[in-house]
Design goal:
The structure holds two protein chains of two kinds. By secondary structure, chain A is of the alpha/beta class. Chain A has helices at about 5-20, 25-45, 50-60, 65-70, 75-90, 115-130, 145-160, 170-180, 200-215, 230-240, 260-265, 290-295, 300-310, 315-325, 330-345, 345-350, 370-380, 385, 395-405, 410-430; strands at about 105-110, 135-140, 160-165, 185-190, 215-225, 245-250, 270-275, 285. In chain B, helix 10 links the parallel strand 5 (about 230-235) and strand 6 (about 255-260). The chains are: A alpha/beta, B alpha/beta.
């Protein structure tokens, strides 16, 4: 889930540490702490009105006698803030909706220019193709130059058909629905042109499009870097078009993403997915409660585990367990782990999910090229070298360096890192720990 | 510019209307009202994305200046605030490089996060140059995003500019090198280089950007100045704009900002924070999707629109 709320988390942590320090909390303490919370929320781009309302609620609850007289007033207030954040972020998470058969399910993506609609269309299609749906993309952005080609290219890459046409977006959409039905596709995803919420004509157009198409879900795609104005655009889209759900994009940067709170508060629609990178797989479900945990510095452990599980398929996991028990670990395994790491997304986004780690590793990113180089070196080894790394002598190392286009120092470094991982695996096997293998996220110097 | 800012002023979101109306209402600042007035001022600045620090600094400075001179009229206080804001932006005037000082071809590199409006801005700026008789070349060094090259090609046709592009996945630095070399050979005036959108936290992509710049400079040789880098920023950007400006400046020495999509209700107040902290000026403003929707930045009008 990236490090979106990382900084906000840092701030809350430090604020609440001072709260925890006090044995007994007075009204003045609460006010002081909440002032800091206000600042943190504003700096995170939560709309100032949303902040105001939120803090009024928190303060009212915090000043209740139960909190002030409790043995752990700090923790009580943390709980109240946490609860409040969960409430704003959508309370109960709901799964994305599909049409009842005969369908098809229709999703329409709307939003401002540059929020990431076209990319997200492809990500949704790829994700649900994987879970057995038959997606069908319809290119209704006829305004931006080459938007149609962009969707066509993305559709081609993920092997999902794309319907295109010219004229009015409405005609293209209706023809697209006919084509999708004819091709027996069960999930139609409609891309629309980006538009400003103050452009009456274009807002009318997308409202009419929605009325004719009758989507199962109408999404508002919002950029995590949006500032205070998120409130105006989101409420306009909600009011004029009607929003069922929000997709929150570009959270893999260092934007603190306070717009998420604003958008959910003014639209009343839940955030269903988050965009976590530029690759087509970089789309994840949104969980308000976990996000609130992140804000409070508890980390997003559940997401991490789920992600790891998706990457390590069940049967592999069994095989790994066996290997671990025996303390075996060779370059073939190393290579496999590199592959898994690729599937799991960036190292950064993984580290961000681990409580207490996000902060230390902020800004650290694993260069995909470095990963590629490692792969090239391992692939330049002979099968017996991969299985018996101890035979890697000087001449062999030199050959590997030449064969993979790296220096001998690179090869030595790789072997050293491998040695450390091997040691790690052995220690795990000795301690008799079972279950998931440690992924190489603990690997130093990567 | 004026007509646009009038439109902008009319298009105010409801959430802010009450606030700015309150500020603009001319009242005598009796002691009882002073606190509320300056709180409102600060809130209006925060609501325009100026950031907590800049908002607090400006509100406090204005208050002190009013108290010192015994100003008891809210309208006069507002005038002082606007002057203070404009001063932050005007202090940039000297920094803004005059665009015609280089020997041709002048090379401009457009950088920014995904979806900021780089390709569209290049189309508009290129058209503006072409209209005053300059011979312009567009280079698509965004070899990552699907159909980015096609998008720039359409803009090149509209603007009457030449185009250099490569296949998807090609080395963007090589595209930049080829484009600048071609512009020299053809004796063109301007090269506008489009780059792939990237989040400023992706260090490998930022390194790639620095490399694009280096190869553009290399292609230009020792004859003229180096390439000019411009940061394209969406006016709806919140406080993350500061981190964007700082990181992009670190990678390619950003000389100015193109502030896009200012035709909505977003105020773009983050550029005030950027000017205040990083001393990077705004040069252009994007106000729509058509080729003419580009204006040079005017600090005084911007400040007026920002406060509604």
């Amino acid at each position: 889930m990236g490090i979106m709320f990382g900084e906000l988390t840092d701030r809350f942590e430090s604020i609440l540490k001072t709260l925890r320090g006090h044995g007994k909390v007075t009204e003045k303490n609460v006010e002081e702490a909440l002032k800091l919370v206000r600042r943190a929320l504003l700096e995170a781009d939560v709309n100032y009105k949303v902040v105001k309302e939120f803090l009024e609620e928190v303060q009212a609850e915090s000043l209740g006698s139960k909190v002030l007289q409790s043995v752990t007033p700090g923790q009580q207030i943390i709980k109240i803030i946490h609860h409040g954040l969960v409430n704003i972020l959508g309370g109960q998470h709901r799964p994305v909706r599909f049409a009842r058969s005969p369908g098809p399910t229709i999703w329409m993506l709307t939003g401002l220019q540059g929020s990431g609609k076209t990319t997200t269309c492809a990500k949704l299609a790829a994700r649900f193709a994987k879970s057995g749906r038959t997606p069908f993309l319809v290119a209704c952005d006829l305004a931006r130059p080459a938007a149609i080609q962009q969707l066509q290219r993305l559709g081609h890459d993920i092997k999902v058909p794309v319907h295109t046409g010219s004229g009015r977006p409405l005609d293209v959409a209706m023809a697209g629905l006919v084509a999708a039905r004819a091709a027996d596709r069960d999930l139609v995803i409609i891309d629309t042109a980006g538009r400003l919420h103050v452009n009456d004509e274009l807002m009318q157009e997308v409202a009419a499009l929605k009325a004719s198409v009758q989507p199962t879900e109408t999404f508002f795609v919002a950029d995590a870097m949006t500032g205070q104005d998120a409130v105006s655009s989101a409420s306009a889209f909600a009011g004029r078009v009607g929003i069922d759900g929000v997709i929150f994009t570009k959270i893999d940067g260092d934007a603190r993403g306070g717009a998420a709170l604003s958008v959910v508060k003014v639209t009343g629609a839940p955030i269903l997915f988050t965009g976590t990178g530029e690759k087509v797989d970089d789309l994840e479900p949104f969980h308000p409660d976990r996000m609130a945990d992140r804000i409070l510095g508890m980390g997003d452990v559940v997401s991490l585990v789920e992600k790891a599980q998706a990457a390590v398929e069940a049967k592999d996991a069994g095989r790994w367990e066996e290997k671990l028990r025996e303390g075996r670990f060779d370059f073939e395994d190393f290579l496999e782990q590199l592959e898994q790491l690729k599937k799991m997304g960036s190292l950064e986004s993984l580290l961000g999910m681990i409580p207490g780690v996000g902060r230390q590793f902020k800004g650290l990113s694993l260069d995909p090229r470095a990963q590629k180089r490692m792969e090239a070196m391992i692939l330049s080894m002979t099968p017996s070298e991969r299985r018996h790394p101890e035979i890697l002598n000087g001449p062999r190392r030199l050959r590997i360096a030449r064969g993979s286009g790296n220096s001998i120092q690179d090869v030595n470094r790789l072997i050293k890192q491998f040695g450390m991982m091997q040691k790690m695996v052995r220690s795990v096997s000795r301690s008799g720990r079972r279950g998931m293998p440690r992924l190489p996220i603990g690997m130093p110097q990567m | 510019m004026r007509s646009f800012f009038q439109r902008l002023a009319r298009g105010l979101a409801k959430t802010q209307q009450g606030l700015t109306d309150r500020i603009k209402e001319s009242i005598g600042l009796r002691p009882r009202l002073v606190e509320q007035f300056f709180d409102d001022l600060e809130a209006a600045l925060i609501a325009a994305d100026c950031g907590v620090d800049v908002a607090a600094t400006l509100a406090t400075e204005t208050r002190h200046s009013c108290e010192r001179d015994r100003v008891t009229d809210s309208a006069e206080s507002l005038v002082r605030l606007k002057a203070a804001m404009a001063q932050i932006l005007h202090s940039m005037d000297a920094v803004a490089t005059p665009p015609d000082s280089d020997t041709p071809p002048r090379v401009a590199l457009f950088v920014g996060v995904n979806g900021a409006g780089k390709t569209t801005s290049i189309g508009k700026i290129g058209c503006h140059y072409a209209r005053v008789g300059r011979r312009v070349l567009f280079a698509s060094a965004d070899t990552f995003r699907a159909a980015a090259g096609e998008q720039l090609e359409i803009w090149a046709e509209r603007a009457g500019a030449q185009l250099i592009r490569s296949v998807s996945g090609a080395d963007p630095a090589a595209v930049a090198f080829d484009a600048v070399s071609a512009a020299r050979a053809r004796g063109l005036d301007d090269v506008l280089i489009d780059t792939a959108g990237r989040l400023q936290t992706k260090s490998n992509l930022m390194a790639e950007l620095a490399k694009i710049r280096r190869s553009a400079d290399k292609a230009r040789g020792d004859s003229g100045g180096a390439a000019h880098a411009y940061l394209v920023m969406d006016a709806t950007t919140g406080q993350n704009g500061l981190s964007q400006a700082a990181e992009f400046a670190k990678a390619v020495q950003v000389e100015g900002i193109v502030l896009t999509k200012l035709d909505g209700t977003a105020k773009g107040g983050i550029v005030l924070a950027i000017a205040h902290r990083l001393k990077i000026p705004v040069l252009w403003v994007g106000v729509g999707e058509s080729i003419d929707d580009l204006e040079t930045f005017d600090a005084d009008e911007f400040v007026t629109a920002l406060l509604g």
